[in-house]
Amino acid sequence: MRACDSYSLNMHFSSLLLLGAVSASVTASRHVVHEERSVVPPGWMKHSRLDPETVLPVRIGLTQSNLDKAYDILTDVSDDESPNYGNHWSDKQIADFFAPSRHTFSTVRSWLNASGISTKRIQQSSNRGWLHFEATVAEMEELLKTKYWKYEHDTGKAHSSCHEYSVPEHVTKHIDFITPTIHFDAQVPRGSGMKIKRSATDGPGMSNGPRIGKTVPAPPKNLGNTFVGGSACNQYDFVTPACLRELYNLPRGTKNLSSFGIVEYFPQTYLQSDLNAFQSIMVTNDAGMPEGTSPNTEAIDGGSVLTPDELGSYAADYYAESDLDLQYAMDLVWPQQVTLFQTGDNGTDSAGVISFNNFLDGIDGVYCNTAGGDTPGFDQSFPDANGYNHTEDCGLWAPTSVISTSYGYNEHDLSPAYERRQCNEYMKLGLKGVSFIYSSGDNGVGGNGASCIAPDGSYTDGSSGRFNPLFPGTCPYVTTVGATELAANNTASAPEVACESVIYSGGGFSNVFASESCD
Asked: The domain at 195-498 falls in which architecture?
């Protein structure tokens, strides 16, 4: 009887183990939605299902370690009251500290292996940041529990995408994002890229994907006789460097101690004759900068300062923004040197997708090789058959201590995972002692196009909906600057006011990054 009881108990216990194993297996394999899109971006239309045998180049961004400590360690080297103030980190320290854990790598690889993607098919980037492999549509649909469709753009470009994708619940915390999936990253002709300030082509129907817009500089505000008493701001009918020095009590520099960087993206470029004229009229007697001074140009991914002949009919459109950025910056920081990071080559014109990530890759080899969030279409691929016939620049250019950019995407046009990954790179560069300044935009809370976001994710005419701020300005690791104007009938020492005449200073709470309270 006792033996029989023992046998029964053993059988019962074995059954429990088997049921437990099955239960654990079922739990581990339960898929949850990882990323999804609420609507198809304007300009795109769903057509047919993709051929199951179509081969896709797959990239999986692995979750990085220690990001929960990022704010504290950045503050530790940035706060002048901290004992570690100015003790900036090396590339190796940053790479080691934030590298994905072995557990993250093994978890994702095991999932892929169990799903039929063998280890020999998988390539791993340096420091375990990315996994790469090729897979058929049929394999990816089974892997991600999704369906791939062919989409076509108004311009005729085709693209492969899905509406949403899922991964096992135990895997999701180990993955940032996977491509190709929900990201509408097909290369479309110019007119559909990252937008710049004061763009005449901005509008709800122009919001699909990153886009480069047409520059329309704001007309000068008439400042004549608006100030009480003598003021440098009464010299001309527009703001001059001398006026800015007076408003902000900026002393003239005496030593060249560091450099200041400005980023321009193809096809935006400056015209030296414009700089010369500005320097001749408003700079030489103010700060001592010689007429004919040029920025130090760093050519990232084949970037070059284009001539009017090279730009053709677009010349007038694509000089104004770059001219404006350089004219004032070069005078105000003199004799500090201004470095121009001219990013993107002539071949980019056919795609219009040179991006912030392309620039970040060029100045930071750690990001380029290990943690980059590059997505084809959002980020230009190199070699470019129409232009820069080399691999992308990867850590070839040294960043300046301060870098300013006057461009931005609608935060809503990019996926949150893409934006978080890039935002974390600004944090890492901060640990190296690099500060980033971004413009907030010119349409209030309406982003590029003065458009807000409807509950279904589409764009409104701006009269209702959620705020539509610009990225990277919403990233908590950059400094975002809005536009101000001078109040009439005041002294030069009186406070400025936010722009609300020619343009409306950008802003709006992020829909991706949490708000932080200030002490």
From this structure: 3-Layer(aba) Sandwich (3.40)
